[in-house]
Amino acid sequence: MCLLLLCVFLSCLPFYLSAQTDRQNEKPIIGVLAQDVYLPQPSQTAYIAASYVKFLESAGARVVPVMINQTLEDYKTLFNSINGILYPGGGVSIVSSGYERAAKIFYELAIEANKRGDYFPVWGTCLGFEQLMYLTSKNTILAYTNTSGAALPLNFTNAEDSRMFKGFPAQLMKDLASEPLTVNSHKWSLGMLTYNTNEELKKFYKVLSVNTDGNVEFVSTVEAYDYPIYGTQWHPEKNAFEWTRPSIPHSPSAVKTTFYMAEFFVNEARKNFHKFETEEGESKALIYNYNPVYTGTKSAFEQIYFF
Ligand SMILES: *[C@@H]1O[C@H](CO)[C@@H](O)[C@H](O)[C@H]1NC(C)=O
Ligand SMILES: *[C@@H]1O[C@H](CO)[C@@H](O)[C@H](O)[C@H]1NC(C)=O
Ligand SMILES: *[C@@H]1O[C@H](CO)[C@@H](O)[C@H](O)[C@H]1NC(C)=O
C-alpha cells in the first residue's frame, strides 16, 4: 500500500514541479512611484502622470500609487504586497528627494529579495532610468545632451540576446531600429563613455541600445544581468497615451512599442507572488481610489493623479 502510494506520488512529481515553474500570478499589481509637484498646493503635493498607469493597465496589471515620505516600515509592507515597481519620469532630484528615498528603499529591497529567489522586477523610465544609474553607481555621472524633445530610432547593441526584446515581433524590431519611434524628453544622459569606464554600471547592466544627440553617445535602454531591473531613457508610455508634444510618435508601430514594452514588464511582475494581507487593504491601496485630472492644456501630461 505504502509502495503504491509512493509510486503515485513519484509519478505525480514531475507534473507538480513543472506546474510550479510555470505558475504565474495572473493578477499582478505594480507600484508606480509618486513625486513632489513643482508648485505644491494644499490638495496637490505629489503626483503621478496617468500615462504610466495606463501603460501598465494596458498589459493586464493593476496599479498602486507608491506615495513619497512614508516610513521604512510602510514601504516594507507595501513591497511585500506588490509584484513590481515602476519609477516614472519627472523633474525631481535623483540625489535627495522623496522620490529618491523611496526609489532607494525599493531598489535595495528588490536586490535582497531577488537574491533570495523572490523575483521582484523594477522598471525606470527617463528620470527613473537616471535614478537607477545613480543607485547602482552611487555617483552622479550624467552628461548634458540636447534631447529635450527628440524622437529617435534605437541603435540596438545587444538586443538579440536580451530578455526585454526577445518576445518582440521581428518587424517591430526593424521599425524600432529604422524609424524614430522612441521619444526622448531629458537633458541628462548616461554617456556611453561614462558607462564604459564605470565598473559598477558595466558589471550590473547590459546596454541594449544607444543613441546620440549628434555630439554625445548615450545609453538609451538597459537590463541588469542578474536582476529583473530595467531602464529606458526614452518614454515607452507616451506613444499611446500622451498627445501634448509634436515629438511624440503615434504611428501603429510606435503604439505597438508601448504595448510590447508594457507586456514585457507586466509578464515580469507575473513571476512575483507578493500579495496584500487582506482584500480590504488591496482595495484601499489601488489607484482606483483616485481620479486623474485633465491637464493637457497646461502640462506635458494629458492626465495627472494628484495626491
Ligand atoms: C515630503 O517631505 C519633504 C521634506 O520634508 C517636504 O518638503 C515635502 O513637502 C513632502 N511632500 C509630500 C508630498 O509629503
Ligand atoms: C538641439 O537639437 C535640435 C534638434 O533636435 C536642433 O534644432 C538644435 O539646433 C540643437 N541645439 C543645439 C544647441 O545643438
Ligand atoms: C550605433 O552605435 C554604434 C556603437 O556605439 C556606433 O558605432 C554606430 O555608429 C551607431 N550607429 C548609428 C546609426 O548611430
UniProtKB/TrEMBL annotation:
The lineage of its organism: Eukaryota, Metazoa, Chordata, Craniata, Vertebrata. GO terms for molecular function: gamma-glutamyl-peptidase activity. This is folate gamma-glutamyl hydrolase. It is an enzyme of class 3 (hydrolase). Belongs to the peptidase C26 family. It catalyses: (6S)-5,6,7,8-tetrahydrofolyl-(gamma-L-Glu)(n) + (n-1) H2O = (6S)-5,6,7,8-tetrahydrofolate + (n-1) L-glutamate. InterPro entries: Class_I_gatase-like, Pept_C26_g-glut_hydrolase, Peptidase_C26. One of its GO terms (biological process) is tetrahydrofolylpolyglutamate metabolic process. Its main location: secreted. It comes from Pundamilia nyererei. Its EC number is 3.4.19.9. The gene is ggh. Keywords: Hydrolase, Secreted, Signal. The active site is at C126, H235. One of its GO terms (cellular component) is vacuole. It is found in: Secreted, Extracellular space. Residues 1-19 form the signal peptide.
